[in-house]
Amino acid sequence: MAILSVNLIAISQTQKTSITGKVIDADSKKPLAAATVYANNQILVADDQGNFKLSKIAKETLSIKASSVGYSDAEQKIGPSEKTASIIISLKSLDLFLQPLEVKSIRANAAAPFAQTNISAHELAKNNIGQDLPVLLNQTPSIYISSDAGNGVGYTYMHIRGSDASRINVTLNGIPYNDAEEMGTYFVDLPDFTSSVGSIQIQRGVGTSSNGAGAFGATINLSTNEFHEKAYTELNNSVGSFNTWKNTLKFGSGLLGGHFTIDGRLSSITSDGYIDRAFSNLKSMAWSVAYIGKTNSLRFNLFMGKEKTYQAWYGIDSTQLQTDRTYNPAGTQKPGTPYSNETDNYWQNHYQLFYNQSINKFWNFNTAFFLTFGKGYYEEYVAQQALSDYNLPVVGNDTSDLIRDRWLKNYFFGQVLSLQYKKNNDELTIGGGWNNYDGSHFGNVIWTAVEPVNNFQYYKYPALKTDANIYVKWQHQFSPQWQSFADVQYRYVKHVMDGFEGSPTLDISRNFSFFNPKAGITYHKNGFQAYASYAVGNKEPNRDDFQASLASQPKAETLHDIELGIEKKTSLYHFNINAYGMFYKNQLVLTGKINDVGTYTRINTPNSYRTGIELEGGYVFSKWFNVTANLTLSQNKIKAFTEFIDNWDTGGQDSVQHNNTDISFSPNLIGGAGIHFLPVKNLELSLFSKYVGKQYLDNTQNAARSLKGFFTEDFRAVYTIKNLVFKEWTLIGQANNIFNNLYVANGWTYAYTSGGELNTQNGFFPMAGTNFMFAVNIKL
Fold first, then answer.
1. How many CA atoms does the CB half-sphere of 486 hold within 13 Å?
2. What kind and span of H or E run contains 102?
3. Tell me, what's the pLDDT at 595?
């Protein structure tokens, strides 16, 4: 891999000298591929031979530090008179087995023929000042975000290449995180998890084989199993608009007795939200204990999260958007003031146990066992309900106001494992996993206006899901320039669901078998790389899709993904051009049709596609100025489908045929840019721009059911102070949406015929105008 400029922090343009270097093992003298090199504010990654190059070196004394997994860091200082010399940095081995194999087995390496973005903990720390993980990923290619509360705290959502969270595979240290039934991801259930993350990889498209639900838009791999050789303590505190507070304590023991480490985190995030009453009260903790030997390692992780948020998921109409855009209809069915406890409440605990073993110099093995336990409910005050619908005794009038809690309680457990072989020009990974989901959906009435009740259970619907997969990945180096990639996966899924709300007698038992092949080839030379790949992904329907009679059950979806890319990376600039074609068979989409059990569910459409081009690049102009940018241009189409519109006059539905229409929530243009200034040492000023084009709220490409494109700009200042009372202070100030653009990033639509006329009702989720966050992060 050629030298990769990670954050493009500039080096002086005034002096055209350069430094070449090599990172080697101090004992064997062998090069250390992909070692990380820090030069003042610049971060580089050495190539396969351990080589790196620094161009446009500043006049002042330069400090160069190198690190690599399994080695102690080393630092070398170079004075102005040495600016043309070649240097060698030797790293001494810790003689410990430190590779996180559970992540390495599913991530794409730099030469893999897939579109990918890698984000380091260093970059995450600059943005991690209180908002949820999707907000931190907003400047990566092809992504756009939205937030119920309007300020990125609480429930936040993301789309990648137009695909929502139910089509984005997320793993925590290689372990599935997506909800097993809905397949979405709710980062609010693990508040401030980013503070424990050491690195993130985003694979766009089908990507490589992974554990968990099939990826139909992207895969996000989060890793926390990082090794800290030295003890540390950090205090991270933020405050901002809408009474937003974040307080985080992180600590670690460093290496104890040559083999043991302990790491921990405690976090609290609170916010009133931009939308009325859309408060968030989020707590979390993380513990990790590890034994690390010469040829093996054992690690136990515990992540615990608790969230309480006031509901803000209904949206507002167009009139309210113009006159009272922070209005929240949640809780307003209660007479007088809104119901104070119209809240969502959820607790989630993750238990992870990893074992890694080096069998010999060619073979490595890892396995992990996990248990995720979650339970929670959302509470609602609902007016004038028919008591008979809740199986409650009727005394006089059948209708009454009542308060109900709708619960979800589940256990998700299983195992992942992989066997890895690497010798000469071949790297082989054999892996897989299994998991079981045991969940229960139930509802309780806790109060009525006419009769006292005590948690009267009015429904209970259990569900089981089994998921197992096995895969084989093989990478072969034909020559110094050419590398092939092959990947085959078999996946088996079984759903058992005993009833649904509104369809209590509907029992479903469905199973699916998927074969997912992938293949590609990569050419790289002198910092230039080109690749091509073809991949197949298959995905089972979500829980709600099954809520149809046995005669009209949904089919699984299939995706054929073609990726073509070229990229060039040097210490001064980088660019990447990736073209993709994602062709779907039987993609499930909403059409407005009411199925045969009386509910609106998604319907299989025979043919649809997403095609586009992703452009990404950056350039270092001088020591004090550099830029980064990305742009996605795409077409996202359903070739043909039938829309169904409720007819209030007849009580039935009217049908309308559509051809070649845009897929909902899929902007044809998404762009981002960053301009970075470094006026003095340790100060970085950045201006971030984001543009998201027009998007449609349904699949009809009707302008009356759309969201306007929007453009936002954020400003961030980061200043670092070292060795003043504490080891390091980092002061961060951020102004979001500095031009106060009153935009909408998410919504819904409903069309109906009444009085012989077609009517459209839209709902909008407004985002906050100008708002601020300030942080003080201290390393003791």
1. 6
2. helix 101-104
3. 75
In three-state secondary structure terms, 330 is coil
Q: Mind giving me the DSSP string for 521-537?
A: EEEEETTEEEEEEEEEE
CB 688 within 8 Å of CB 716: yes
User: What is the C-alpha to C-alpha distance for residues 259 and 49, in angstroms, rounded to an integer?
Assistant: 30
Token look-up 């969502």 returns 344
Buried b (16+ CB within 10 A) or exposed e, 478-499: eeeeebebebbbebebbbebbb
pLDDT per residue as tens digits for the range 137-179: 999 999 999 999 999 999 999 999 999 999 999 999 999 999 9
- Distance, C-alpha 46 to centroid of its chain: 27
Whole-angstrom CA distances from 260 to 256, 289, 474, 587 are 5, 7, 34, 49
Alpha carbons 718 and 122: distance in angstroms, whole number: 12
- Measured distance CA(500)–CA(544) in Å, rounded: 9
Tokens of 456: 């009267």
* Counts of helices then strands in the chain (DSSP H, E): 4, 42
- Interval 677-702: pLDDT, tens: 999 989 999 999 999 999 999 999 99
Q: Which long-range contacts (CB under 8 A, 24 or more apart) does 752-761 make?
A: 752/645, 752/646, 752/647, 752/648, 753/645, 753/646, 753/647, 753/648, 753/649, 753/654, 754/648, 754/649, 755/649, 756/649, 758/645, 760/702, 760/704, 760/705, 761/317
Q: How far does Cα 126 stand from its chain's mean position?
A: 17
**681 Cβ contact partners less than 8 Å away, ≥ 6 residues apart:** none
- H/E element, 101: helix 101-104
Residue 16 pLDDT: 40
CB 166 within 8 A of CB 184: yes
Whether 626 and 10 have beta carbons less than 8 Å apart is answered as yes
Q: What is the 3-state secondary structure (H, E, C) of 150-176?
A: CCCCCCEEEEECCECHHHEEEEECCEE
Give pTM, 2 decimals. Answer: 0.91
* Tokens at 650, concatenated: 């007849």
How far apart (Å, rounded) are the C-alpha atoms in residues 260 and 300?
12
Alpha-carbon span 124 to 720, nearest angstrom: 15
